[in-house]
Amino acid sequence: MILDELVAATRKNLQERQAQVPLAVLQAQLATLPPRPHFTLNAQASDQPIKVIAEIKQASPSKGQIVDPATFDYQQIARDYTAAHVDMISVLTEEDYFKGSLAILSAVAQTTQLPILRKDFTIDPYMLYEAKVAGASAILLIVAILTDAQLKDFLALAHELDLAALVEAHDADEIQRAITAGATMIGVNNRNLKDFSVDFNNTQRLRASIPTDIAVISESGIQTRTDVAQLEAAGINAILVGETFMRATDKPAMIAKLRGQYPRG
Ligand SMILES: O=P(O)(O)OC[C@@H](O)[C@@H](O)c1c[nH]c2ccccc12
């Protein structure tokens, strides 16, 4: 299964970073970090247009290379997303399959004061400290790769570090585990990681099993205004969009389009 490979690659790269930079070194930096915004989503507010989390990723296991590495200007993308007033920027930091890095996240943090989500396969508390030091305001916790105890511990540490936690679930069982662990933001992935198929009906079905005081983010495969209108009608609080924005030459116009606003000009 692809998820097992992703976790194995993450573990290997993590061990190398831990050997280079001991946790104590990261912890010592916490006291001197420049201020970053706090990220929160109000689950009760049915925002129109829907909140937007815009992703920066140059490659993925399902799509391969999405943008030409020669033209992958992540700081310009961050400026475009900032100009479009998205609610958060998601930055892939997984190195082997998504060709991301913490260095990209740090550079994006230098470029924008918008909150940044570190998009990675979080498997160790060390990664939360790394995220914080690099300038992230939020981290991703994927239920499928964590035990209940890890979920609880990582949520507590995120809270301590003032990092918001987006808890990702794919089915009713994982949603229940996310709720039990105390998640306040649940991301429902429309993409099935077993066969990469995308199904919005899944999100809409699962919405009903999430209490209304928990914010729900719909993730993956969102391409058109029709998709977004469907998710808005289902009471979803935010969308997380990667590929559609990465492929758009005029990113602010594409963001306006998905929000149901007329493109400028
Ligand atoms: O590019 P898309 O189809 O708009 O998807 C974005 C995001 O949902 C996807 O990158 C993602 C969802 N969950 C993840 C977990 C790890 C890495 C990546 C992801």
Automatic annotation (TrEMBL):
<dbReference type="GO" id="GO:0004640">
    <property type="term" value="F:phosphoribosylanthranilate isomerase activity"/>
</dbReference>
<dbReference type="InterPro" id="IPR001468">
    <property type="entry name" value="Indole-3-GlycerolPSynthase_CS"/>
</dbReference>
<keyword id="KW-0028">Amino-acid biosynthesis</keyword>
<dbReference type="GO" id="GO:0000162">
    <property type="term" value="P:L-tryptophan biosynthetic process"/>
</dbReference>
<keyword id="KW-0456">Lyase</keyword>
<keyword id="KW-0210">Decarboxylase</keyword>
<dbReference type="InterPro" id="IPR011060">
    <property type="entry name" value="RibuloseP-bd_barrel"/>
</dbReference>
<feature type="domain" description="Indole-3-glycerol phosphate synthase">
    <location>
        <begin position="3"/>
        <end position="258"/>
    </location>
</feature>
<keyword id="KW-0057">Aromatic amino acid biosynthesis</keyword>
<dbReference type="Pfam" id="PF00218">
    <property type="entry name" value="IGPS"/>
</dbReference>
<dbReference type="InterPro" id="IPR013798">
    <property type="entry name" value="Indole-3-glycerol_P_synth_dom"/>
</dbReference>
<comment type="pathway">
    <text>Amino-acid biosynthesis; L-tryptophan biosynthesis; L-tryptophan from chorismate: step 4/5.</text>
</comment>
<dbReference type="InterPro" id="IPR045186">
    <property type="entry name" value="Indole-3-glycerol_P_synth"/>
</dbReference>
<keyword id="KW-0822">Tryptophan biosynthesis</keyword>
<comment type="similarity">
    <text>Belongs to the TrpC family.</text>
</comment>
<dbReference type="GO" id="GO:0004425">
    <property type="term" value="F:indole-3-glycerol-phosphate synthase activity"/>
</dbReference>
<dbReference type="InterPro" id="IPR013785">
    <property type="entry name" value="Aldolase_TIM"/>
</dbReference>
<protein>
    <recommendedName>
        <fullName>Indole-3-glycerol phosphate synthase</fullName>
        <ecNumber>4.1.1.48</ecNumber>
    </recommendedName>
</protein>
